[in-house]
Amino acid sequence: TSFGFADVGEGEKQTRVNDVFHKVARRYDIMNDLMSGGMHRVWKDAMITALNPPKSGSWRSLDVAGGTGDIAFRIVEASRGNADVTVLDINGSMLEVGRDRAEKRGLADRLTFVEANAEELPFEDGSFDAYTIAFGIRNVPDIPKALGEAHRVLKRGGRFLCLEFSEVDMPLLETLYEKWSFNAIPQIGQIVTGDGEPYRYLVESIRKFPNQENFAALIRQAGFSRVTYTNYTGGIVALHSGWKL
Ligand code: SAM
């Protein structure tokens, strides 16, 4: 199937992305578990281990495309309540679910929710010690612009971490994974949310995203130093890391 995402402009792409997440916001968390077989939890935990937020001293982190708060909650918990995390997302419906969850977990006082675009961050230069983005960058129409903004809002010595679907480097796993993503994921979406189309789009957006090396090059071009990546689950997901030095 084709829904012409390749030939739509950037504004149109963002509108479609927004529609997807408005539609799925309330079912987003359960869908993540179903679609990834719970693996998204393992990948997110690994990201937080890599970040290793300090357990004392003032430390501010920005989680972009933070959605319903999964990364931000983990950062606050790993810092034993020390970190201040700003959750930024372009979609008010996702942030609303995030706010409710934060209240229920008693984490709300460490979190700030901001509705804004990753391409135009409403913060001053050098505001944060760390910038995280999980399963978000591939939805952003102008990726170099978002990376430039990440670099701008970080302090010198600040850390950039990005978790995203990537290129599978094991042939057998790749075959299984393709079957799963093109057949099962839209069907699960259809059953759970009543609409398979948004999930067809999500799968398509994974295929179009640059592979590990090409994405690392974009991060370097944005000005980051010591750029590295780690594959998880045979490259289904990769964690990219960079520093503003
Ligand atoms: N980080 C969360 C997680 O890992 O569970 C949510 C990931 S969800 C797949 C992608 C999120 O990116 C959505 O909440 C969507 O609203 C957000 N998003 C899409 N385009 C964006 C943009 N231009 N700026 C900020 N957020 C954006």
Description:
The protein has a seven-stranded mixed sheet, sandwiched between helices. The chain has helices at 10-24, 28-36, 39-51, 70-78, 92-105, 143-153, 171-193, 197-208, 212-221; strands at 60-64, 84-89, 111-115, 128-134, 154-165, 225-232, 237-244. The radius of gyration is 17 Å and the shape is globular. The protein is of the alpha/beta class and 245 residues long. Strand 6 and strand 7 form a beta hairpin. It has one domain (10-244): Rossmann fold (3-Layer(aba) Sandwich). The model is unreliable at 1-5 (pLDDT under 50). Helix 3 packs across helix 4 and helix 7 runs antiparallel to helix 8. It contains nine helices and seven strands, in the order H-H-H-E-H-E-H-E-E-H-E-H-H-H-E-E. It binds S-adenosylmethionine. The site of S-adenosylmethionine has 21 residues, from helix 1 and helix 4.
Describe this structure in a few short sentences.
The protein is of the alpha/beta class and 245 residues long. It contains nine helices and seven strands.
What is the topological layout?
Layout (H helix, E strand, L loop, with lengths): L9 H15 L3 H9 L2 H13 L8 E5 L5 H9 L5 E6 L2 H14 L5 E5 L12 E7 L8 H11 E12 L5 H23 L3 H12 L3 H10 L3 E8 L4 E8 L1
Parallel strand pairs: 1-2, 1-4, 2-3, 4-5
Antiparallel strand pairs: 5-7, 6-7
The structure holds S-adenosylmethionine.
